[in-house]
Amino acid sequence: MTDTTDTAPVGEPLLRIEGVVKRFGGVRAVDGASFDVRRGSITALIGPNGAGKTTLFNVVTGFEHGAEGTVEYDGRSIAGKPSYAIARRGMVRTFQITKALAAMPVIDNMTLAAPHQPGEHIVGLCIHPRAAHRREREVEERACELLETFGLAAKRDEYAGTLSGGQRKLLELARVLMVEPRMVLLDEPMAGVNPTLGGRLLEHVHALRERDGTTFLLIEHDMEVVMGHSDRVVCMAQGRVIADGDPESVRTDQRVIDAYLGGAA
Length: 265
Known about the structure:
alpha/beta; Rossmann fold; six-stranded mixed sheet; four-stranded antiparallel sheet; 10 strands; globular; ABC transporter related protein; ATP-binding; P-loop_NTPase
């Protein structure tokens, strides 16, 4: 189980990104991006398509390597660390295109995400069978609680591939909570989600922040969501951070208007 002990004051930076550069051949998809995400906050990362937002997510969470710059999580460098090691430290992510295991039941999608299961290894299962079975029960109970919370309990035995797009988004968020993270990165959580399920997802985000102090960094194009639900907004364009501040100041920043919002501002 992830260590959720958090002794640093609320509002101190939990994630620091400094001078990150990621190249693909001669293209600098991320070009010196720098910003902090404060613990207990909901921070939105916005920008036009091709700005480097998802590539930056991939670098921060260990899905892309070979980047330059510094990435620190909870005071320790995670640059170059594999994704599973970063997740074990309490920072997890979702994807724009959900990664549900379509040919497996919803409940199995949930239980697979839980860490520290001795039954996963034949040695642990043979030497400590009681501990393995006890942990299996704990994991299933936790999974069922989360499915109930996210309104998916009735779908527990159905294949994940039968869920709607919005339900898959809810399943993905519920699944990352199996590792009890301190920080969650959401890549376009509203994309393809109907307003009702989108509203439920946002309610869960706020509840997790208020109840557990969970920190969120989200990529989002829906400006109504960004302005109404984030404490802070970071705007990227052409791989660089061009604005960083409260939602209103970023919305009225001329650089953001020119690069992203245009006439919609």
